[in-house]
Each structure stands twice: as structure tokens, then as C-alpha cells.
Amino acid sequence: MTIDLHTHSVESDGTDTPAAVMNAALAAGLTTVGLTDHDTVAGWDAAAAQVRRINGGGAERVDAGARCANAGPKLRLVRGAEFTCREGGVSVHMLGYLFDPTHPKIADHFTRQATARIDRAKEIVERLAADLPLTWEDVLAQLKGGAAGVVGRPHIADALVAKGLVADRSAAFASYLSAASPYYVPQRSPRPVDVVGWIVDAGGAAVLAHPKAPSRGKVLEDSVICELAEAGLFGCEIWHRDNPESVRPALEELVARLKLCPFGSSDYHGTGKPNLLGENCTPSEVLSELEKVGRLEVVV
Ligand code: AMP
Ligand code: ZN
Ligand code: FE
Ligand code: FE
User: Looking at ligand 1, which atom is closest to the CA of residue 117?
Assistant: First the structure.
């Protein structure tokens, strides 16, 4: 079992279509993949349709014997999203899995967040435009399929690359778009404790993404993780390239003490980031627990 439950498509800031993420997951030898675009579920249907095709089911079925009794599905899809949150000046990412996307708390949040993302990205572009030949249209041109409401720094980075102002996304994040840069504007976002509540109310499981990522400014305090656990947090990413190796033993201990499920993920973004599918994985027992908790089925 190779389970990687954290990936992004063009519906947010990845570079593969949702169907291409599913194909890449199969090619990378994953048995279960999670699609977790930032603040949207727009990629779910296309990803699900592709997984059904891969497994020889659904409308595309040509041969009833294609899915033979003991072979089982080739690839399984866990539908999710990565919610941008903020706590005490720290950017926090909360993964939600198998929740009902039509639940008013979730649907209203995505609508509000889309407006907030556009406002904030425009502010960053205004600051950059004072010194660089960059327009809002240049940034919109970099949305590779997603709606304008998913715009973020990666799309501004891509516009800077297209203009020849930086070499690649990572160079943009290290310079003009770094949180320490004068052009930076933080994203107004809900508190993670509230987002955990919404995900739980919508029948899903909330999993804290890369809590010890140092590139995000201050890292999240353990006390906040304790508070989130009390609010119904299901799990926490331990094995993620942005959690430094040195902090992982203490994080594992904390996660075990709080009776949270431990996750490992790639955070694949296509060619937008070096992260490779399956570079970190989630234990199969954790996936079983996730399936018990989630309101939605895993797609096969
Ligand atoms: P934002 O949410 O707009 O502040 O942008 C941060 C997002 O950029 C994170 O969710 C990352 O997934 C994404 N990102 C994409 N490429 C990079 C990169 N090369 N370095 C840092 N973050 C990146
Ligand atoms: Zn991202
Ligand atoms: Fe993240
Ligand atoms: Fe992510």
C-alpha cells in the first residue's frame, strides 16, 4: 500500500490537471491518492472520473471483465482540500478529508476565501507594480484552469517567471514573494480551531499540514496543536519535507500523546515544486481510520 494524501492540481497552484494528477499517482505506484487543492473542491469530479476510468469502471467501461473479482481497484481517491488559516501571525494549513462540500459552513467559507484571496493578491501585485513591469492581468493569465478565487503567490511567481524577472517559482518565493519582503501581504484567513469545527460539522476529518515548516515564518506552537486536538483534530502530518528531520521525533511523540493519527505526504504540485508523489506516505491503518470517520466514500 502506497498512500499519499496531499497533492495539488491546476484547480489551485499545481501544474497538472486533476486527471493528470491521478495518472501521475498511478505511474508513481500509489495505491491511494488524496487531492487537496487550496480552498476549493473544484477538481474532485474530474479526478473521480479519471480514477473510475483507470479502474475500468463507470461510463468508460468497455469490458465487464476489466475489473476482475480479485484484482481490486488500481487506484483509490480520497477527496480533500487544504484550508488556509492564520493563528497568531502564523500561516497554518489545515487539510480536510471526506467532508460534505455542500455543508453551508464549508461552502460559505470557500466563497468568502475566494474574495479574500483576490483582494490580497491584488495588493501584492500593486506593491510589486511600483517597481516592476507586472500587471494583475499577467497574474490572471497564470491561472492554469482554476478560478480566479484560488489565486495565490504561486501564480504571481509564475507571472514573474513569464516576464523573465525571476528564474522559477522557488526563486520568486526566495525574493519578491518571501514573507520577509516589503511586497508581502499576509492572507486574511480564519483561525484553524474554527476550520477544524467546520470540517467536523461537515462530516470530515481535519489533519494539520506541515506544522513545523520553518519557511512559513514562525512555526506553530505545540500548545496550539493541543488546542486543535481538543477541538476535534483527527491527525497531523509528520513525514513531510517541510517538517525538518530534527523536529520529527518530538512531533511524533506529541501526536501519539494527543492520540492523533500520523500522516506522511508529498504535497505534490506538478512541476511547481520539487516534491515527488509518494516521497512520504501515510500508514494503511490511518487510512482505515479516516474511512471510518469520513462522511464521503473513497472513490474507486
Ligand atoms: P500563499 O498561500 O498565496 O501565501 O502561497 C503559499 C503557497 O505557495 C503554499 O501553499 C505552497 O504550496 C505554494 N508554493 C508553490 N511553490 C512554492 C515554492 N517554490 N516555494 C514555496 N511555496 C510554494
Ligand atoms: Zn500549494
Ligand atoms: Fe500547505
Ligand atoms: Fe499543500
Answer: 3
